[in-house]
Amino acid sequence: MKRCALFVLAFAVVGLFAADLPPAWEGWRYWRALEVPATDAPPAKATLPMEVYGRAQTDLGDLRLLDDTWTEVSYVLHIRRGFRRQEWLEARLAEVGFVPGPPAAYTQAEVDLGNQAPPHNQLEIETDEKDFFARVELAVSDDGKSWRLLRQQAPIYRFQKDGLPGNRTLSYSESRARYLRLRIEAGEERIPVRGVRVAREVAEEAEWAKLEARFAPHGEAPPGRSWWQTDLGSERVPASGARFAVGQGQFHRAVEVYTSDDGERWRRVGQGDIYRPGNRGGDALTAQESLRLDFEEARGRYWRVAVLDRNDPPLSEVQVELWGTPRHVVFRQEPRRSYRLLYGNERAVTPQYELARLLGREERERAVAAAVGAEEINTAWVDPRPWSERHPVVLWVALGIVVAALGLLALRSLRQAA
Questions:
Q1: pLDDT tens, residue by residue, 397-412
Q2: What is the dotted CATH code of the domain comprising 84-204?
Q3: What phi and psi values does residue 168 have, to the nearest 5 degrees?
Q4: Whole-prediction pTM
Q5: CA 162 to chain centre
C-alpha cells in the first residue's frame, strides 16, 4: 500500500511538471527540471549546461526559477572568474654581461631588491630584441654569493615578424631573497637586457569546466602553421581557455586562439605558448611544462587554435580542449519543493533580486549541487515579439505596394500637368 502511494505521488509530480506553463510564463520557450538533494543546507546551485547558452539571452537575463506552485524564486547567478594582480617592487639592475662558450654562451644579469626585500614571485625581462627565442635560468641569493636555483630552461621569446608579442615573464615560487640572477641562453646570440621588473603576483584561480567541443585538424592552414577547429553550434557559449595533450617529447611552440561567428571572419582572442622542455640530468626544475593557454573570456560559434610550427614538422598526437568558467544559479531551497529553470525569452528583462545582496560568497560556494534535467519545450509557448517583428515579410510587401502606388500617383500627376 505504501509503495502504491509513493508511485501515485511520483506520478502526480511528473504530471505537474509535464503540464504546459501557465499563461504568465507562456513567453518562455524552454525549461528544465531541477532535482535538489534532501539536505538541511538551504542554498542549492544548478550549473547551466552548455545548451542553455544557445537558447537563452547572451547575458542570461531571461533565466527564471519557479517552484511547484508556479511561484517565481529569487536566485543569484554565481561566476568565479578568478583574478591576477601584480604589486610591482623597486628593483635595480646591478650587472649585465655576456659569457661566451664553451660549454654554453649566455647573457647574465643580476638584480638587487635592496635590504629587507618584500616577497616576490614574478619577473619580467625588458629587451629591444625583436625576434628571438631563449631559455632562462633563474637563481636567488640572500648575500650575492650562495645561489639556489628556482627555474631552469624557462622559455622566453618574441616573434615580431609573425605578429606575436611573445612572453618575457617568469613565474617562480615566492621568495624574500635580495638578489636574483638570470642566465639567458640563446645559442651564441647575446640578448640585450634593457631592464627587469619584479613583482609579487596575487592570484585566485578561476573555476574551470571543459566544454563539449570536438577539435579536428584543418587542412587549409598556411605553411608553417597547424590549425585545429571546432563548431560549438552557437555563438553565445563563453570560453576562456584551451588545454593541450601532445605526444611529442620535447617542443616549444607559439599558439594563437581565434573565434568567429560565421566561419569566415576571424578575430584573435588569445596568444601564448605551450612547451615541454625535457629533463636534463633528471633535475625536477627542468621538467616543468606548460600545456594550457588562458585568455579573456570570448564568445563565438567557431573556434580555431593555430600552432606556429615555423620550419619544424607539426606536433604529433595533438588533442585540443576548450574550457570555460561555468555559471551557477544559486537559490535558497525549501523542504519538499520542486523547481524548474526557465529560459528562451528574448524579450525578458533581467530580474533584480535582493538575494544578490543577502547571500554571501561563502554561502554561494558551499551551495549543494542540484541535478539539471533534460531540456523540455513549452508547448503553450507564445512568441513574445510584436506582430510586426514576427511577420517582417508582410511589412515589406505592404511597403512595396505603398511605394508602387505613390509612383503611379506621381506619374499620373506629371501627365495631367503636361
A1: 666 777 777 878 887 8
A2: 2.60.120.260
A3: -130, 25
A4: 0.81
A5: 24
